[in-house]
Protein backbone atom coordinates (compact mmCIF):
# COMPACT_ATOMS: atom_id res chain seq x y z
CA UNK A 1 0.00 0.00 0.00
CA UNK A 2 2.89 2.36 0.82
CA UNK A 3 4.43 1.68 -2.57
CA UNK A 4 1.16 2.31 -4.37
CA UNK A 5 0.81 5.69 -2.61
CA UNK A 6 4.41 6.58 -3.48
CA UNK A 7 3.92 5.66 -7.14
CA UNK A 8 0.73 7.73 -7.37
CA UNK A 9 2.48 10.67 -5.72
CA UNK A 10 5.41 10.50 -8.16
CA UNK A 11 3.12 10.19 -11.17
CA UNK A 12 1.05 13.14 -9.96
CA UNK A 13 4.12 15.33 -9.47
CA UNK A 14 5.57 14.43 -12.86
CA UNK A 15 2.33 15.47 -14.58
CA UNK A 16 2.29 18.87 -12.90
CA UNK A 17 2.44 21.71 -15.45
CA UNK A 18 5.66 23.68 -15.49
CA UNK A 19 4.24 27.19 -15.20
CA UNK A 20 7.65 28.83 -15.53
CA UNK A 21 8.11 27.44 -19.04
CA UNK A 22 4.71 28.70 -20.15
CA UNK A 23 5.45 32.16 -18.76
CA UNK A 24 8.79 32.32 -20.56
CA UNK A 25 7.14 31.61 -23.90
CA UNK A 26 4.39 34.16 -23.25
CA UNK A 27 6.89 36.77 -22.10
CA UNK A 28 9.09 36.24 -25.12
CA UNK A 29 6.15 36.46 -27.51
CA UNK A 30 4.62 39.46 -25.80
CA UNK A 31 7.92 41.37 -25.85
CA UNK A 32 7.95 41.34 -29.64
CA UNK A 33 7.73 44.75 -31.22
CA UNK A 34 6.53 43.37 -34.56
CA UNK A 35 2.91 44.16 -35.35
CA UNK A 36 1.64 41.45 -37.71
CA UNK A 37 -1.25 42.41 -39.96
CA UNK A 38 -3.77 39.55 -40.24
CA UNK A 39 -6.37 39.51 -43.01
CA UNK A 40 -9.15 37.32 -44.29
CA UNK A 41 -9.48 36.98 -48.07
CA UNK A 42 -11.96 39.84 -48.46
CA UNK A 43 -9.58 42.23 -46.68
CA UNK A 44 -6.59 40.93 -48.66
CA UNK A 45 -8.23 41.38 -52.10
CA UNK A 46 -7.47 45.12 -52.41
CA UNK A 47 -3.76 44.36 -51.87
CA UNK A 48 -3.88 41.88 -54.76
CA UNK A 49 -5.30 44.42 -57.19
CA UNK A 50 -3.76 47.85 -56.57
CA UNK A 51 -4.30 50.29 -59.40
CA UNK A 52 -1.15 52.39 -59.40
CA UNK A 53 2.07 52.68 -61.39
CA UNK A 54 4.08 50.32 -59.17
CA UNK A 55 5.23 46.81 -59.97
CA UNK A 56 3.63 44.54 -57.37
CA UNK A 57 5.24 41.26 -56.34
CA UNK A 58 3.11 39.15 -53.98
CA UNK A 59 4.58 35.95 -52.61
CA UNK A 60 2.56 33.33 -50.71
CA UNK A 61 4.79 31.46 -48.27
CA UNK A 62 5.03 29.87 -44.81
CA UNK A 63 7.80 29.24 -42.30
CA UNK A 64 7.19 25.47 -42.56
CA UNK A 65 7.75 25.49 -46.35
CA UNK A 66 11.44 24.83 -47.17
CA UNK A 67 11.27 26.06 -50.81
CA UNK A 68 9.54 29.24 -49.56
CA UNK A 69 12.28 29.92 -47.04
CA UNK A 70 14.97 29.27 -49.65
CA UNK A 71 13.58 31.87 -52.07
CA UNK A 72 12.62 34.50 -49.46
CA UNK A 73 15.95 36.39 -49.68
CA UNK A 74 15.40 36.86 -53.42
CA UNK A 75 12.12 38.65 -52.73
CA UNK A 76 13.69 40.65 -49.92
CA UNK A 77 16.37 41.98 -52.25
CA UNK A 78 13.92 43.19 -54.93
CA UNK A 79 13.07 46.47 -53.24
CA UNK A 80 16.76 47.33 -53.01
CA UNK A 81 17.71 45.97 -56.44
CA UNK A 82 14.95 47.93 -58.17
CA UNK A 83 14.71 50.97 -55.89
CA UNK A 84 14.26 53.42 -58.75
CA UNK A 85 11.63 51.26 -60.48
CA UNK A 86 8.85 51.44 -57.86
CA UNK A 87 8.75 47.75 -56.94
CA UNK A 88 6.52 46.83 -54.01
CA UNK A 89 6.91 43.42 -52.38
CA UNK A 90 4.18 41.85 -50.24
CA UNK A 91 4.84 38.58 -48.43
CA UNK A 92 1.60 36.79 -47.54
CA UNK A 93 2.19 34.21 -44.83
CA UNK A 94 0.03 31.11 -44.79
CA UNK A 95 1.34 30.01 -41.41
CA UNK A 96 -1.18 28.58 -38.97
CA UNK A 97 -2.66 31.25 -36.65
CA UNK A 98 -1.52 29.36 -33.54
CA UNK A 99 2.07 29.72 -34.79
CA UNK A 100 2.10 33.48 -35.41
CA UNK A 101 3.71 34.26 -32.05
CA UNK A 102 5.87 31.16 -31.76
CA UNK A 103 7.19 30.74 -35.32
CA UNK A 104 6.21 33.48 -37.76
CA UNK A 105 7.01 36.63 -35.78
CA UNK A 106 10.26 35.21 -34.37
CA UNK A 107 11.30 34.23 -37.93
CA UNK A 108 10.53 37.73 -39.24
CA UNK A 109 12.53 39.33 -36.44
CA UNK A 110 15.46 36.89 -36.57
CA UNK A 111 15.92 37.38 -40.32
CA UNK A 112 15.16 41.12 -40.18
CA UNK A 113 12.67 40.93 -43.05
CA UNK A 114 11.94 44.39 -44.43
CA UNK A 115 9.19 43.69 -46.94
CA UNK A 116 5.59 44.19 -45.88
CA UNK A 117 4.34 40.95 -44.38
CA UNK A 118 0.73 40.04 -43.76
CA UNK A 119 -0.84 36.78 -42.62
CA UNK A 120 -3.83 35.31 -44.41
CA UNK A 121 -6.21 33.74 -41.90
CA UNK A 122 -9.17 32.46 -43.85
CA UNK A 123 -10.37 28.87 -43.61
CA UNK A 124 -12.43 29.01 -46.82
CA UNK A 125 -9.67 27.86 -49.17
CA UNK A 126 -12.26 26.83 -51.76
CA UNK A 127 -13.05 30.51 -52.21
CA UNK A 128 -9.72 32.28 -51.88
CA UNK A 129 -7.41 29.87 -53.74
CA UNK A 130 -9.31 30.13 -57.07
CA UNK A 131 -10.04 33.77 -56.26
CA UNK A 132 -6.32 34.50 -56.28
CA UNK A 133 -5.81 32.50 -59.48
CA UNK A 134 -8.16 29.95 -61.03
CA UNK A 135 -5.21 27.72 -62.01
CA UNK A 136 -3.69 27.66 -58.50
CA UNK A 137 -3.73 24.27 -56.77
CA UNK A 138 -3.04 25.91 -53.41
CA UNK A 139 0.58 24.71 -53.25
CA UNK A 140 3.23 27.12 -52.02
CA UNK A 141 5.36 28.94 -52.80
CA UNK A 142 3.22 30.88 -55.22
CA UNK A 143 3.72 34.37 -56.60
CA UNK A 144 1.73 37.03 -58.39
CA UNK A 145 3.56 39.74 -60.32
CA UNK A 146 1.55 42.56 -61.82
CA UNK A 147 1.76 46.11 -63.05
CA UNK A 148 -1.25 47.85 -64.52
CA UNK A 149 -3.12 45.41 -66.76
CA UNK A 150 -0.21 42.97 -67.08
CA UNK A 151 -0.46 40.15 -64.55
CA UNK A 152 1.21 36.75 -64.18
CA UNK A 153 0.78 33.94 -61.63
CA UNK A 154 3.55 31.47 -60.77
CA UNK A 155 3.12 28.28 -58.77
CA UNK A 156 6.47 27.00 -57.55
CA UNK A 157 9.76 28.41 -56.39
CA UNK A 158 12.17 30.74 -58.14
CA UNK A 159 15.92 30.86 -58.38
CA UNK A 160 17.25 34.39 -58.02
CA UNK A 161 17.96 34.57 -61.76
CA UNK A 162 14.46 33.37 -62.69
CA UNK A 163 12.84 35.94 -60.43
CA UNK A 164 14.99 38.77 -61.80
CA UNK A 165 14.18 37.72 -65.38
CA UNK A 166 10.44 37.83 -64.65
CA UNK A 167 10.70 41.21 -62.91
CA UNK A 168 12.64 42.70 -65.83
CA UNK A 169 9.93 41.56 -68.27
CA UNK A 170 7.43 43.69 -66.36
CA UNK A 171 9.73 46.70 -66.24
CA UNK A 172 10.56 46.77 -69.97
What is this entry, summarized?
By secondary structure, this protein is an alpha/beta fold. The protein has helices at residues 2-14, 19-30, 41-48, 66-81, 100-110, 125-132, 160-171; strands at residues 37-39, 55-61, 87-93, 116-120, 142-147, 150-155.
Would you write up a description of this structure?
- With 172 residues, the protein is of the alpha/beta class.
- The protein has a single domain (35-171), classed as Glutaredoxin.
- The protein is 47% helix and 20% strand.
- It contains seven helices and six strands.
- It has helices spanning 2-14, 19-30, 41-48, 66-81, 100-110, 125-132, 160-171; strands at residues 37-39, 55-61, 87-93, 116-120, 142-147, 150-155.
- The chain has a six-stranded mixed β-sheet with strand order 1-4-3-2-5-6, sandwiched between helices.
- Strand 2, helix 4 and strand 3 form a beta-alpha-beta unit.
- The protein is globular and about 40 Å long.
- The model is unreliable at 1-30 (pLDDT under 50).
Amino acid sequence: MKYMFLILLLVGLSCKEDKNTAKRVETTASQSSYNLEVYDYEDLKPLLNSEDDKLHVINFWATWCAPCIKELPYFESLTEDFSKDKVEVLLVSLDFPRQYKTKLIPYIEKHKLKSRIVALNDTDQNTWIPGIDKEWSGAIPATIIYKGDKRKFYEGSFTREELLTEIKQFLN
